[in-house]
Amino acid sequence: MSKRNITFTKPEEPNFLKRIKEQVGYKEGPTVNTKREALDRATEEDFEDTSEEQPTVVVLRPGDLSAEEATQAAEELKKQAEETPADLNIPVVFKRPSKAKTAQSQKSSKRSSSGEDLDEKTKKRKGKTLLSFDDEEHDD
């Protein structure tokens, strides 16, 4: 199949809609192109945190990390990240957790929280009858 270019041409607005919009004072909203222009004008300053947005550092004991030390450490980390190039030779591998491991971890967490084995609980339930009928009630 050959590729086809599909384009959209907006039809001209009817005269009665033009008159109504003029009477009301309607203004066209932003289009996709105007939104793209606004994004192009964005700078790095727009994405930086102001002093009001900075985290609050609380020093409880002497020897804790102070605000100045925290900012210095953050700047050093940024410099290191900028200086070191990314190693593109290492493949990125995403792994799903195996179902067996997640099922075992859920069972172990249930056992530790309840104090009894889950298997023992199910055996007890199977041994009991859920409904019981007295023979005396059915005597006619």
TrEMBL record:
Residues 24-140 are annotated as: Disordered. Residues 34-44 have a biased composition (Basic and acidic residues). Residues 4-137 form the DUF4604 domain. Coiled coil: none annotated. InterPro entries: DUF4604, KIAA1143-like. This is DUF4604 domain-containing protein.
